Amino acid sequence: MKISLIIPTYNEKDNIYDLLLKLKEEFLKNKIDNEIIVVDDNSPDGTGQILEKLKIEYFNLKVIHRSGKLGLSSAVLEGFNIAGGDILGVIDADLSHPVFKISEMYKEIINGADFVVGSRYVKGGKIEGWNLYRKILSRGAIILAKVFTNVKDPMSGFFMFKKELIKDKIINPKGFKILLELLIKLDYKNIVEIPIIFTNRTVGKSKAGAKEIIFYLQNLFGYISLNKRIKNCFNTPKGLFVIVFLILIIARLIYLLFPTKIAWDASVYIGMAEYMLSFGKIGLWEYFRPPVLPILFSIGGYISLPIIIWAQFLTFLASILSLWLIYKIGEKIGPFIGVFASIALGVSTIFFSFSNTPMTEVFGVFFSLLVLYFFFVREYYFTSGLLVGICFLARFPYGLLALVFGLSLFYFNWKDKNFWRQFLNKLFYFSIGFLSIVFLYLFSNYFFYGDLFSPLIAGIDVISGSIWIYKRAFGFYENIIFLQNPLFIFSIITIFMSFFFKFFSEKRYIIYILFTWIIVFFIYFVNETHKEIRYIVTIFPALSLLSGISLSYFYKKYKKFIFILIVLLIVITFNNMTFFVQSKSVSESFKNFYFFLNKEDGKTVITSSPMVVVYSPVRIIPAYDRWEFFKNIYERDRLNADFLLIDSCELYVCPPQGEVLCENYKKEVLEQVYTNENVIYDNNIGTCHQIIAKIRK
User: Fold this and answer.
1) What torsion do the CA atoms of 484, 487, 491, 494 make, to the nearest 10 degrees?
2) Are 547 and 494 in contact (CB under 8 A)?
3) Percent of the chain whose predicted confidence (pLDDT) is above 70
4) Last residue in a domain, options 542, 574, 606
5) Which of these, 210, 404, 491, 603, has the minimum number of CB atoms within 10 Å of its CB?
6) Using CA atoms, how far apart are residues 240 and 612, in angstroms rounded to an integer?
């Protein structure tokens, strides 16, 4: 049997000769009848011209020259169209695939296999030379493809199959991944995966990018209509959730492609993790912060990962696990409730925007849902108490969950004849779990700071500072909740139907828990003068589950109408998606600024922003918020520092009617810096004036 091997090329002049030489040796050694078809997309580096010269040396070489960069998949299809062999094969031109495996794959076809895939993910296969980002993308793409095929590496670019399988089939994938479509559309019986070691290219540039990821996602949506199993999924809660879950993951992966600015608090938590890992040599420590995130982020250092990458990965993981947890809790309440609760939470603008931002918002939602899961679904009261304690140490206001669940235990048991025994028994285990974490935290405060409550008191003082900036009008949170996510309107409908029309009587207990959750936290945050959009995320789990209850009720009665309504509301919600997103040029400029001190390992920096610790291994002296504060700290600690860093956009706080005074402080600081220090970076990005200076001793 003759094999036609297709090689798509674009700018592969440094690889193509070596590849053809290896192929020639492999085919001669194993006496395989063959032809090689190279499809070149008008490579600017002259790959096409080199191939024309090589045709003299390789009599079995065919070359197709195309007018431009039309894509890998279409190049492979053009090769298939002129192939004269009984077996069609595909291999990359960049020497990443092991040529010596061709004979093994060919023998599998001869011995009866219809399709053979060179797999990186079966036993014996692996990838060499990829960074963590590419590995995560590859694994993510394979997980999404599992809906359509059981092949372990449907993203492989190295495969063979019998030509007869493709006869009369319409194949038209976009992008550079053609194998998945072949696996879905071809009628094969026997498929074999051969382990290969994939070696990342050493010469040339990878073709994978954001455009190819988008093409892949488009292909996946197109395949849904071909799969009866997926169509039937809409009729079962589990099946519908799988589809919803995949869509929400895809949306988050796409969001990762947008350039963003690292958030202030995220920088602080990453800096605290670096401080822990280096025993105070770099980073910073703000003792009034909850300690859970710095501890979690510091694990990245022990497994040799950049802390920023590890922190973003953990945040992304907590985000998608939150969607799974809310589904499990919802399905305990009733069919389809978990599905719609996960939709309501997953498309919430604020929660979605924080899904790759390493701050307390996503982790707070995750831990609070974990509490509810063990309290309501599993009824493990000691464990749920422990988790409330951890929740408290992830974000202090979550300590109010102890009150929420304590009141819920009272409500659930008060009609029972053995009320006090039931109530006190459950409350005892819950309290022991919660207080064990709280006492451990208070003891550590005393050990490190000499006082039980000083971090909590300091935190209150920080929140109360510059209060005029965060003072908001009445109704601030109400507008945010329902304008940012119209699906939350259904939570009001659930409460109204339950309390006034006696609907959902069998769900009264969980509705009471969720309603209490909302009321307790809402009262707390409304009465706080310091108001920020992100604070209200604390009640999103309760709002989502309540919304899921009435949405599932209406879905059973008016399936098509509710489905269209949900899609419409999701579109409205995503239209507000603006948090943290910047233009690519601005994002890169900010990174370059904070990366400038990357080689100054262990040096001390007086800085207006903690973001420098994300990109540079330095120890910082904070001089935040106001030019007045920066001036005082600069004058006090100048001789203890090696550099100073100013980002004027982070020194924005100015007391009411104090604009003239603030401007004077700014002029004094800049005059001292330009006069006394060696300015090594001076740039403007929009309205932000950025300066880095080496301090003259």
Assistant:
1) 160
2) yes
3) 87
4) 574
5) 210
6) 44
The pLDDT of residue 466 is 55
CATH number of the domain bearing residue 121: 3.90.550.10
β-partners of residue 682 are: 691
Structural element, H or E, at residue 115: strand 115-119
Asked whether 94 and 122 are in contact (CB, 8 A), the reply is no
Residue 544: inside a domain: yes
Q: 109 with 187: CB under 8 angstroms?
A: no
Compute and round to an integer the Cα radius of gyration of the chain.
30
- Is the same domain home to 535 and 606? no
Domain count, the chain: 3
Domain shared by 188 and 327, yes or no: no
Torsion angle of C-alpha atoms 586, 589, 593, 594, degrees rounded to 10: 60
**Is-contact 628 292, C-beta < 8 A?**
no
For 2, what's the count of Cα atoms within 13 Å in the CB-facing half-sphere? 8
553 with 630, same domain: the answer is no
Instruction: Kindly write down the DSSP assignment for every residue of 553-607, as one continuous string.
Output: HHHHHSHHHHHHHHHHHHHHHHTT--TTB--HHHHHHHHHHHHTTTT-TT-EEEE
Q: Are residues 529 and 649 in the same domain?
A: no
Positive or negative: CA dihedral 39, 43, 47, 53: positive
Q: Quick one: pLDDT at residue 3? A: 95
Q: SS3 of 212, please?
A: helix
The residues that bridge with 195 in the sheet, in sequence order, are 119
Tokens 């296999």 appear where? 113
**Cβ atoms 311, 294 nearer than 8 A:** no
Q: Is 7 part of any domain?
A: yes
What Å distances lie between residue 66 and 326, 534, 573, CA to CA?
Answer: 51, 52, 43
Q: Domain limits at 678?
A: 584-694
In a domain, 264, yes or no: no
What is the maximal distance between C-alpha atoms in the chain?
96
- The pLDDT of residue 137: 72
Cα(277)–Cα(305) distance, integer angstroms? 12
Question: Which parts of the chain sit beneath pLDDT 50?
Answer: 578-580
pLDDT of residue 618: 96
pLDDT for 228 = 55
Q: What is the pLDDT of residue 607?
A: 96
Q: Is residue 222 part of a domain?
A: no
φ, ψ for residue 365, nearest 5 deg: -60, -45
Q: Are 125 and 85 in contact (CB under 8 A)?
A: no
Q: Which of these three, 556, 574, 592, is where a domain ends?
A: 574
Q: Are residues 413 and 492 in the same domain?
A: yes
Q: Are 163 and 171 in contact (CB under 8 A)?
A: no
For residues 509 and 528, give the distance between their C-alpha atoms in angstroms, rounded to a whole number: 29
As a whole number of Å, the end-to-end CA separation of the chain is: 79
Strand, coil or helix: 256: helix
Identify each DSSP E strand in 145-303 by its residue range.
159-162, 191-195, 197-199
d(CA 296, CA 280): 17
User: What's the pLDDT score for residue 283?
Assistant: 95
In a shared domain, residues 83 and 182: yes
Tokens of 621: 């002296």
